[in-house]
Amino acid sequence: xxxxxxxxxxxxxxxxxxxxxxxxxxxxxxxxxxxxxxxxxxxxxxxxxxxxxxxxxxxxxxxxxxxxxxxxxxxxxxxxxxxxxxxxxxxxxxxxxxxxxxxxxxxxxxxxxxxxxxxxxxxxxxxxxxxxxxxxxxxxxxxxxxxxxxxxxxxxxxxxxxxxxxxxxxxxxxxxxxxxxxxxxxxxxxxxxxxxxxxxxxxxxxxxxxxxxxxxxxxxxxxxxxxxxxxxxxxxxxxxxxxxxxxxxxxxxxxxxxxxxxxxxxxxxxxxxxx
Length: 275
Ligand SMILES: C[S@@+](CC[C@H](N)C(=O)[O-])C[C@H]1O[C@@H](n2cnc3c(N)ncnc32)[C@H](O)[C@@H]1O
Known about the structure:
It is a single chain. This protein is α/β, with parallel strands linked by helices. It folds into two domains: 3-67, Chemotaxis Receptor Methyltransferase Cher, domain 1, CATH 1.10.155.10; 80-267, Vaccinia Virus protein VP39 (Rossmann fold, 3-Layer(aba) Sandwich), CATH 3.40.50.150. Helices cover 43% and strands 18% of the residues. The protein has eleven helices and ten strands. The chain starts with a helix and ends in an 8-residue tail after the last strand. It binds S-adenosylmethionine. S-adenosylmethionine binds next to loops. InterPro entries: Bact_Chemotaxis_MeTrfase, CheR_C, CheR_MeTrfase, CheR_N, CheR_N_sf, SAM-dependent_MTases_sf.
């Protein structure tokens, strides 16, 4: 790939998704975009860059961006945020009462393990939630992973990563060598394609936001922009969870860390509300 076509593709992907591609990732680009070149009958990356600027470029740009996302995920990833969520939910449910559903959002949900982990916690805690309903939304920029998340079908390898055996037995059925999430759990979640760089206001207000292991791929101004947009969608007593390598420090003062909790944040000025 020539430096010119790399620079063109990197700029396009960044403007569409926020993902920053470093020059040393040229090889990764070549590997991931190879199938697109083949499918489109393009000789090289110069030809791809040209096609991206021509008619139909928009659809192709979507495919290129999707191909460059990293969709690694696992059930109950890193443990701690999910333990914190278990402690948080009864209080939040009591504050909402039976008439108002709790709204939880797995932003950048990839293939759905995070949203299904949240759903399993809600199912387990149901007796302590006083009849409070819960809606979970899972979103991702990639249509391919949103489709997979909706299907709720996982390989043996995927269920072996982080999913306790008792929850596998309780919520999954084995079908044709894959593990299918049970209908009652699937019904708790709506999966939708959504770009974190787009206006988040149409998604509404959330009590809990998981935005984990996606900001690491963005530059500082993009991280700040997404964090501020999320703070605006977070309920006053709500909590935002970030990934282990992510922080709000130096990016925004609209969110502050919960004392003693790494990776869990509340809106600034709401100290007494989210324990
Ligand atoms: C590494 S996965 C993280 C999955 C899950 N949150 C976790 O921690 O296991 C990152 C996901 O972010 C998505 N993504 C990247 N840029 C995005 C954007 N601008 N808007 C929404 N999703 C995005 C990718 O498609 C990918 O599925």
